[in-house]
Amino acid sequence: MGLLAAFLNAPSIVLPCEVSEATWRGTLARLLEVWVTLGFLLFYLMSGLISWKTAALLIPAITFISGILGLLIVPESPSWLYRRQREAEAFNSLLKIRNSRTAVEKEMVEMKMLDQQDTKKLSWHHLLKMIYQKDYVMSMVISVLVPSLAVFCGFGVVAIYLPEVFAMTGVSRDQYWSSVISGSFRLLFNFIGSGLLSRMRRKVMLVSGSFTALVGVASLGAFFYFKEQRYDMSDVSWLPLAAVVMYVAGISGGVLPPAWLVAAEVLPSNIRSFGMGITNTVYTTLYFLVSKTYDDTKVTLGPHGVFWAYS
């Protein structure tokens, strides 16, 4: 599963950017996050009803198989074909996904201009040296750090351990149905965030989403703190769910929609594929480290300390 995620993540982000028109690029690229959210939501929903083994069989059948069937009819990336001197195939691929032959011819001219800086013949060693050059280093730093925002604030941990987090709150509401509610809001804000990409500046979305998530996860930490101090929390039993929904809204609606898009857009086309590979490697490494340290950090700092650290 780890290998599968590693091979799928980067091309799943790059391909929509390469085949879509600029107007729709952000919205279409972020549909990947909608698909991921749907998988989590199905898991939350099924976990309260069936065994994990059955869920592990059903969820891939619903999401992964249908994804493969869709890929069978998707044309290859025109820019990828062009960089390998397969111009006729690139032209035909563009014809399948564009409304106008004139638009296709214009894009082919743009590809020809970009091809002058093509790096397809360079080894990974030369590409690695290129990204340390002055012209590329800042783009690479931004590409690596922006998607990492969601990792540093513990979004992966919350998604994975969400039923456990609700169980720790001790509220009477069923932990799985609370997860379903927050997962549904995550899906909703995925769609909202994807729609806002074409209307809002990337930085505005990132900052506002981060601030919203900060308030949500800090409130969750506060709930755990006062609970550990043996305060009566029955009057605010609604707070954990509200805090998680606010946290999810900030990340899913504000941070994640522009984050991966910025990571791809900021890289020059001649190093985009290689650069996104590095970004994906750093992202998954951080994701592993933050997820792996959650249990030990929770023991050391307490639940409130973990969520305040994320905030």
TrEMBL record:
<keyword id="KW-0812">Transmembrane</keyword>
<dbReference type="GO" id="GO:0016020">
    <property type="term" value="C:membrane"/>
</dbReference>
<dbReference type="Pfam" id="PF00083">
    <property type="entry name" value="Sugar_tr"/>
</dbReference>
<keyword id="KW-1133">Transmembrane helix</keyword>
<feature type="transmembrane region" description="Helical">
    <location>
        <begin position="175"/>
        <end position="197"/>
    </location>
</feature>
<feature type="transmembrane region" description="Helical">
    <location>
        <begin position="136"/>
        <end position="163"/>
    </location>
</feature>
<feature type="transmembrane region" description="Helical">
    <location>
        <begin position="204"/>
        <end position="226"/>
    </location>
</feature>
<dbReference type="InterPro" id="IPR020846">
    <property type="entry name" value="MFS_dom"/>
</dbReference>
<feature type="transmembrane region" description="Helical">
    <location>
        <begin position="56"/>
        <end position="74"/>
    </location>
</feature>
<feature type="domain" description="Major facilitator superfamily (MFS) profile">
    <location>
        <begin position="1"/>
        <end position="311"/>
    </location>
</feature>
<keyword id="KW-0472">Membrane</keyword>
<feature type="transmembrane region" description="Helical">
    <location>
        <begin position="238"/>
        <end position="263"/>
    </location>
</feature>
<dbReference type="InterPro" id="IPR036259">
    <property type="entry name" value="MFS_trans_sf"/>
</dbReference>
<dbReference type="GO" id="GO:0022857">
    <property type="term" value="F:transmembrane transporter activity"/>
</dbReference>
<feature type="transmembrane region" description="Helical">
    <location>
        <begin position="31"/>
        <end position="50"/>
    </location>
</feature>
<protein>
    <recommendedName>
        <fullName>Major facilitator superfamily (MFS) profile domain-containing protein</fullName>
    </recommendedName>
</protein>
<dbReference type="InterPro" id="IPR050549">
    <property type="entry name" value="MFS_Trehalose_Transporter"/>
</dbReference>
<dbReference type="InterPro" id="IPR005828">
    <property type="entry name" value="MFS_sugar_transport-like"/>
</dbReference>
